[in-house]
Amino acid sequence: MKTIFVPTSGNSTDHAVFATALAVATPFGSHLEFYHQRLSACEAAVRARHVEFCMGPALTDALDSLRQQDEKLSANASEHFREFCAKHAIRIQMTPDGTPAVTAQYLDSVDDPEKHFLRHARHRDLTVMGRPAHKDLMPSNLIEMLLVESGRPILIAPCSPPKTIAGTILVAWKETSEAARALGAAQPLLERAGKVVVANVYEGNGAPESLGDLANGLAWHGINATTRIIENASHRAPGELLLDTAAELGADLLVIGGYGHGPLREAVFGGVTAALIRHADCPVLMVH
Fold first, then answer.
1. Which of 13, 186, 241, 251 could bond to 246 as cystine, CB 3.0-4.6 Å?
2. Which helix (H) or strand (E) holds 103?
């Protein structure tokens, strides 16, 4: 995980996202690419539903307001970046020079957010994002789109900045290709973790044997993982059980595959995954 894409909104959520990105970057000496997406007034008007009902002077005022909002968020994003780098003594540079320390750069673009986000996410090892708030007129399905189309893992930052993500790691396991890809993406972190727990919400189908074999495979990588079967006698939602387990363990990171069936939103955010993203107190690493 040497290159990490860090979208910055210019809102207060930046602080937790930046801290989460730094927690990942520090053990690897990674390069952080902070990115702010700007929108022209015309593009923002298309994405702001209320503007379509404006006419005459009201339309002019609405466009001026959107332009001012973009300028404010852009200035905030740049300031957040500079302050964060100064606070943590992170060197700002655009090209690699072999330094083992964390480095950073700042980029922005105007309009076509889907195109720009996908390109940056595909070209980097990891994307770190905040929980969706939809206050900056970005695509409402941005996280889903990046998960499905970037081919890269995404780390969802919690609301509060984490101190570390490599203390205790909980891996939510299910016999799916998505879970396997998430495990592979998390392996560099698992190798540095103080404790790894692989858990399965038991659905009456081969979990004990499956987890034992998985733990044995991880042992060959020097990862001493313990396993846990989460019984669901009360028929609670699996996401709630995983959240309870993460809280009980004091997990610093939760790893899960984004999977499901149906349209794009349901396929990625169906059930378990949606609950974890909305309510997890720790960062959530996802791969579709």
1. 251
2. strand 103-110
pLDDT, tens digit, for every residue of 210-235? 889 999 999 999 999 999 998 877 77
Domains of the chain (ranges, CATH numbers) = 3-156 (3.40.50.620), 168-287 (3.40.50.620)
Number of other residues whose CB lies within 10 A of the CB of residue 19: 19
Assigned token pair, 134: 């939809």
User: Given this model, what pLDDT does residue 50 score?
Assistant: 57
Contacts of 265 (CB under 8 A, 6+ apart): 141, 144
| Three-state DSSP state, 146 | helix
Chain centre distance of CA 256: 12
User: Under 8 Å CB-to-CB from 183, ≥6 apart: which residues?
Assistant: 171, 173, 190, 214, 255
Six token digits for residue 219? 């042992």
Q: What is the pTM of this model?
A: 0.88
Residue 52, pLDDT above cutoff 90: no
Pair of tokens at residue 255: 């790893």
* DSSP-assigned letter for residue 235: -
Would you state the pLDDT for residue 67?
85
Helix (H, G, I), strand (E, B) or coil at 70: helix
Mean pLDDT of 8-12: 89
DSSP collapsed to 3 states, 192-217:
CCCEEEEEEECCCCCHHHHHHHHHHH
Tell me, what DSSP letter sits at residue 49?
A: G
Q: What is the pLDDT of residues 96-120, one digit of tens each?
A: 988 889 999 999 999 888 899 999 9
